[in-house]
Amino acid sequence: MKTGPGRAASGRTASGKAAPEKAAGKAASKKAAPRKASTKASAKASTKATAETPVAGEPAAGTHASPKGAAKPESRLAMVRRARKINRELAEVYPYAHPELDFRNPFELLVATVLSAQTTDLRVNQTTPALFAAYPTPEDLAAAVPEEVEELIRPTGFFRAKTKSVMGLSAALRDDFGGEVPGRLEDLVTLPGVGRKTAFVVLGNAFGVPGITVDTHFMRLARRWKWTTSDDPVKIEAEIATIFPKSEWTMLSHRVIFHGRRICHARKPACGACPIAHLCPSYGEGETDPEKARKLLKYEKGGFPGQRLNPPPDYPGRPAPPPGAST
User: Where is composition skewed (Pro residues) in this entry (predicted)?
Assistant: First the structure.
């Protein structure tokens, strides 16, 4: 094939110089090179930005998620701060938190607490007036006829075992402690039917000695709030004691128990109406719809067995129940 005049088949001129079109093409290629590198840099930056942008509902990189869906394990410090904030907010919700057993002295509180096992505080409060009218002192109860005591406390359930316990502890108080309830944990737990939970109820509410009462409500909420993973009351007590100052132990117990009875129930917690839902890592275990959750609340009279209809006189600031609460 012949080429045009003065032009070789290779695209070069007769003088050996590159054809103008080729030269222009190479120049254009060199000018385009920086743009190509820029495109790669942009793509890389875009990929990095995409990787750093959190997916909806997930925490940003390098941050901790909220307790409702933590992507990273919560640190001990973060847990302690959250636990103490829960306590502070519960103090605002339940400024009138108190023991819900009726008593006039340490002996009555001790007996009432033993009788409260496997029954409600309301049932105990309905039963103890007749019991204490008949046997007002440890000496009286220790000398009672067992069958007569059984009949008086029958409504509380397990009345034979409870009769043995209250008469046994009364005899021990008479024989070993001069008829007085001791104000020390190590002495209280030697009494028949008295464990650490009962002892701390008596110490905290009759003697002003701080203690953590780990009942079924406290145990359930401590686990839901990730304060502990244990199901052993003694271990839970020890773990909680490291989270809160000693001065808070008794009132903390009342607040947690109040919340467990009124809102954070065992079977149907009212998550959607819970005032501390934003601090709860177990949010969603119960009803989250606000309207449906409000119907599960157990406030005021008729709400749950064992709740006082009114707080004691020294707790005048009881807030009104929220709209829709059972009354």
Answer: 310-327
Which range of residues forms the domain containing residue 203? 101-209
> Which CATH number goes with the domain that contains 114?
1.10.340.30
Which of the listed residues 209, 236, 257 is the one where a domain comes to its end? 209
Pair of tokens at residue 4: 């045009």
The CA–CA distances, whole Å, from 247 to 149, 204, 256, 277 equal 38, 10, 15, 25
Among 162, 215, 295, 301, the active-site one is: 215
Report if residue 82 sits inside a domain: yes
Report if residue 61 sits inside a domain.
no
* Residue 314 falls in the annotated catalytic set: no
Q: Are the C-beta atoms of residues 303 and 120 closer than 8 Å to each other?
A: no
Respond yes or no: is residue 102 known to be catalytic. no
Q: How far is CA 290 from CA 25, 271, 278, 325, in A?
A: 70, 8, 14, 11
The Cα 145–Cα 167 span in angstroms is 9
Q: How many whole angstroms separate alpha carbon 189 and alpha carbon 178? A: 17
Catalytic residue among 31, 197, 292, 301: 197
pLDDT one-digit tens code per residue, 102-116: 999 999 999 999 999
Q: Is the pLDDT of residue 6 over 90?
A: no
Domain's final residue, options 174, 209, 244: 209
Mean pLDDT on 289-298 = 92
Q: Does residue 44 sit within a domain?
A: no
pLDDT at 183 (0 to 100): 96
Q: How many domains does the chain have?
A: 2
Q: Provide the annotated binding site for [4Fe-4S] cluster.
A: 264, 271, 274, 280
Tens digits of residue pLDDT in 26-84? 444 444 444 544 444 454 444 444 443 333 333 333 334 445 555 589 999 999 999 99
Considering only CA atoms, which of 263, 257, 259 is closest in space to residue 298? Answer: 263
Do residue 238 and residue 93 come from a single domain? yes
